[in-house]
Every structure is written in C-alpha cells, then in structure tokens.
C-alpha cells in the first residue's frame, strides 16, 4: 500500500525533510567518523536548511543493539553493521512514509546499506547516484582490508547476490536494486575486481578523467540519462565526502588527491534537485578526528553546502517569499 502511495512522489511537498544521524564507524578502522552527525548538526545545519523555507524534523540518531551473530571471513564487525543498518532501514521507511525527503548523516559509507534498502522497500523503483572516490564494490573475497564500507554496493545489488556467503544477521536484507540503476561520479581509486564488475555489467562510471573531458554539467546529465532515462524513478544520492579533493574536504578517512571541486559537487546536487525526484541523500565519511581545526571546518562547511544545494539552495539567490511586495528600485541605490 505504501509503495502505491509513494510512487506518486511527483505530488509530494518538497519542503519537508527528515534528518537522521548514524554515528557509526565500524565499517572501517579509523576512529572519529562516528562524530560526523554531531559536528555537522553543531555547525548549524538545521538552521541553514530552515532559512531555505524547509520544514525539518530531526529524528535523532540510530542507537542499535547487536545480536549474537557468527563471524564471516574478511568482514570486520559484521554483527554491528547488520544491527545498525537493519534499524536504519526501518527508520528510513518511516521517514519516507511521513512524506519527507530523507537526509542521513554518517558515519562511514557502510550505513548506505540501510538507507538504500529502506528507500527501495518503500519506493521500489529507485536510481542511485554514488558520488565517491571509490566504487565500494568489493565482496569479502576481494576486499584487501575487510572493511565493510568498501562493500555496500555489492551488498545491495541483485546481480552480485550470488557472490556472497551466508551473512549471519543480514537475513533481513534481500538485494532488490539492479546494479544498472547505479551510476558513479568522481571515481579515481578503483580496485581490479571492482573495475571488472563495472566493465562486465556496463555500469555508468564517471571517473575524474571523464569529468575533466565532458565537464560536470554533461557528466551529471549523462549519469541521470543512464540510470533514469524516462525521468520517473525516485532518486537517491549517496555522497561520500572523499569524492571532493582533499584540499576541499581534508577531514576524511580515505582521501584521494585529484577529486571534485566543491563547485562541481554543488552543481551535481543542484541538477539532481531540479529533477524534483530526489527523495533520499546520504552524506558520509566526515571524520573530525582527522586534521586540525581548520581542516574540520572546511570539511563540515563543504558538507553543509552540498546538502543545501540538494535541498533547494540556489547560487542565484533565494526567491522572494509569497506575499512580499516588490521593493522599489531606489532601495538598491
């Protein structure tokens, strides 16, 4: 029933946002990324969004309890990932059913297993823009680190479901997203197996070389045309802050030089907002334990600018609210 209702999302009110924090860092090994939601909130995110005329409801943070699950070779902290993402998926579904666009603050990128699962459960026909320096397409058999934040796309997609062993605690998560509904932008650090998967399935993957060749406007247009050619799917943007060049966002765990500029990232989000089909945003991998105070400030500011652009901020200035009369030109003299 909910799918039937929410698949008519073209009639939704686009000024309603549901914010959820996921202070989770066990999908990788560097301490501090769990503080991402707090530092972004503390920097005034909600106030900045309310300036845009948005109705923002903060649903708080995910607090989970682990259950006794077995280990899987080369997957660190699987029971924590399983418990956190299960609860997160349920919360995402509630926020969407509340008729709000979901904004999720991570945490490491493993949290997107929960956000995208919840989105697909409700909306069903979902297209994903994965904005990242990395493809996150490894399985436990191909990963060099065993870090689950490098595996979420492989966990979510139907075409790769047979490449996994039984994952204790993850029985709730059944891959329902086709890998052909995922497009990458910003890639510049892709493992050999990941490249093989991208080529085998023809996944639209726009690395930094492509961004330089085509320009960011053409890149985002081509990506959307590939994963949503008819312009009818519910859109999910999973934005890893390490997609930005480290000069723009130094406080992140797996920084790679030569990334997107903040201006390019903002343009991506502006274009996605203009589709009127954006229903979920993940902003992940902000780690305030990395770098000095200036580095953290730069990174958090970049995160907020990206979120604002996704939710309606325009660099041309905000529209005059309804009911406000035009100012006389002499006001500006």
TrEMBL record:
Pfam families: Arginase. CDD domains: Arginase. The keyword Protease does not apply. It is an enzyme of class 3 (hydrolase). It comes from Polistes dominula (European paper wasp). Its EC number is 3.5.3.1. Pathway: Nitrogen metabolism; urea cycle; L-ornithine and urea from L-arginine: step 1/1. Keywords: Arginine metabolism, Hydrolase, Manganese, Metal-binding, Urea cycle. It comes from the Eukaryota. Binds 2 manganese ions per subunit. The keyword Secreted does not apply. Its cofactor is Mn(2+). It catalyses: L-arginine + H2O = urea + L-ornithine. This is Arginase. Belongs to the arginase family.
């Amino acid at each position: 029933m909910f799918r039937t209702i929410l698949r008519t999302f073209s009639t939704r009110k686009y000024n309603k946002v549901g914010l959820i924090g996921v202070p989770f860092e066990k999908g990788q090994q560097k301490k501090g990324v769990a503080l991402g939601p707090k530092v972004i909130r503390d920097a005034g995110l909600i106030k900045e969004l309310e300036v845009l005329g948005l109705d923002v409801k903060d649903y708080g943070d995910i607090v989970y309890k682990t259950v006794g699950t077995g280990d899987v070779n080369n997957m660190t902290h699987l029971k924590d990932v399983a418990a956190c993402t299960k609860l997160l998926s349920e919360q995402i579904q509630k926020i969407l059913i509340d008729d709000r666009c979901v904004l999720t603050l991570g945490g490491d990128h493993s949290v997107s297993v929960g956000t995208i699962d919840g989105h697909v459960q409700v909306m069903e026909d979902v297209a994903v823009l994965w904005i990242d320096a990395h493809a996150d397409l490894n399985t436990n058999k191909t990963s060099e680190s065993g870090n689950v934040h490098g595996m979420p796309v492989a966990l979510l997609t139907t075409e790769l479901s047979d490449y996994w062993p039984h994952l204790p605690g993850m029985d709730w998560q059944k891959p329902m997203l086709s890998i052909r509904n995922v497009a990458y932008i910003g890639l510049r650090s892709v493992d050999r197996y990941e490249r093989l998967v991208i080529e085998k399935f023809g996944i639209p993957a726009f690395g930094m070389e492509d961004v330089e060749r085509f320009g960011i406007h053409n890149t985002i247009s081509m990506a959307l045309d590939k994963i949503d050619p008819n312009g009818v799917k519910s859109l999910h943007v999973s934005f890893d802050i390490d997609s930005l060049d480290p000069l723009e966002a130094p406080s992140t765990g797996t920084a790679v030089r030569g990334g997107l500029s903040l201006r390019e990232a903002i343009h991506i989000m502006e274009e996605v907002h203009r589709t009127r089909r954006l229903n979920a945003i993940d902003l992940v991998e902000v780690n305030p334990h990395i770098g000095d105070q200036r580095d953290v400030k730069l990174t958090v500011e970049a995160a907020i600018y990206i979120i604002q652009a996704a939710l309606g901020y325009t660099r041309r200035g905000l529209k005059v609210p309804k009911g406000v009369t035009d100012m006389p030109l002499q006001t500006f003299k």
